[in-house]
Amino acid sequence: MIFASCQLIQTQDSSANQATQRLPVKSAETVREFQAAPRNELTSEHAITYPSLWERIRASLSLQPAYSHPRVLEQATRYAGNQEYFDLSAERAAPLLHGIVSEAESRGLPMRIALLPFVESAFSPYARSREGAVGLRQLLPGTARAYGLQQDLRYDGRRDPGVSTTAALDYLQSLRNEYNQDWLIALAAYNTGSRNIRRALRCEGVQFKVADFWKLPLNAETSAHVPRLLALASVIAKPEAFSIGLAELSDSEPLSHVDIGRQIELEQIASLTDLELECVQTLNPGYLRWTTHPQFPQQIAVPRDRRALLERGLAQLQPSRFVTWEHYAIQPGDTLSEIAQQLGTSAETLRVINNLQGFRIIAGESLLIPRGSSLPTLAELRNLRPIYERRQQPDIPDFYTVRRGDNLWSIARRFDLRSAEIRANNDLKLDSLLQPGQALDLQFARNATADRLLTTPRYDLSRVCPGDYLYQIAQLFELDTADLLRWNGLTNNDLIHQG
Fold first, then answer.
1. Would you please indicate which residues are annotated as catalytic (active-site) residues?
2. Of 317, 373, 461, 473, which one has the fewest beta carbons inside 10 Å?
3. Which residues span the domain enclosing 175?
């Protein structure tokens, strides 16, 4: 949803900085995965330069008989021609996918495992399921803690693409070992839990060694989940066969990770690197507030070409400017109104500053208080980043000339429009691919609403389930239905669909 704010990562020239990669030697544990692959897919003793990250992925995607299974073909029809889904997912994946592919290769894992975030979350670190699973890999709190992920009020490792990938791959490998090296059953267990898999095996009266995923009596979601991943792999292997075009992704690491060594505000990072705050937040989604963690972690991801700029800026930054907010430790018996009165402000101001859902506070936790003699008023908060950002509607040209790397989604986000509106007003088909130099008519958007107030862009995503409707989802998350419509670019007449 918000990865468009880092366009400099997504539109980089794929011919520049191409990395020379060495394909890993396939371990004995993964030989079955590649038995059906052509011989050139198994060559691993020479260096190969790939023209794009997609080509690097395809080189390790084996064409298995499972891809022609009826349940996989059924899922593939869901992807066929769904260009907007691939545009959105690829845009979100652009800064992250290279690192995930490298991690999967270093472990000798099947490449389709690297594609799992496409299915789990459409590559959004902000995705949240009804059951409380969070992040690219949709990890539940207990599973995340079991694999060492930190979760507290200021940081959630499930949203951190790097550490969550490590934890998820560790978990998947342990499941694969538990289920006799069967990746399909391991993936099913990842989705539904080992307890449900064991129950299904007992129902079938079979042992792990002879279990067949396709015959297990699993719930509908899990029964579709694994075929959906296989179908996605088949689409990425041959996108043209499904009327899909994949945005170019360079086979080079786009990010650098800098250990700051102390707590720092994300807005300071944005200032030092000449990036938008939204971009810094997008690249560091594990941080739940507007600073790095007071203790750990304090590492920041930035575009690779901004690392030197950040390091120079940090060397010149006075220690007092790393954080311009103070922490008030909540004591037993404290109330928000009493703290506000003590500080000469209002409880509502403190609630807004600290992004509290209500006025309830917990002893032992802390409140952020701006340094200085006076607190901002609510009116001032509306112009204070990162609490609130006021965004003016961008100037929309009558016609927009498509540039290299553009897609309907990124253009729509740039001008606060809906891609469906652009498509409809330019008589484009659902599977139409944009060409550099093509002119898009945007005159229909002249009366777009301007000057909208936005909260900090840390969206939660909820996957629509069978029987869901907007009012029910709004009630579940204690939101206003009108806000849900506005945030998702919907009207009262639009339908929502499962998935």
1. 120
2. 373
3. 3-125+165-242
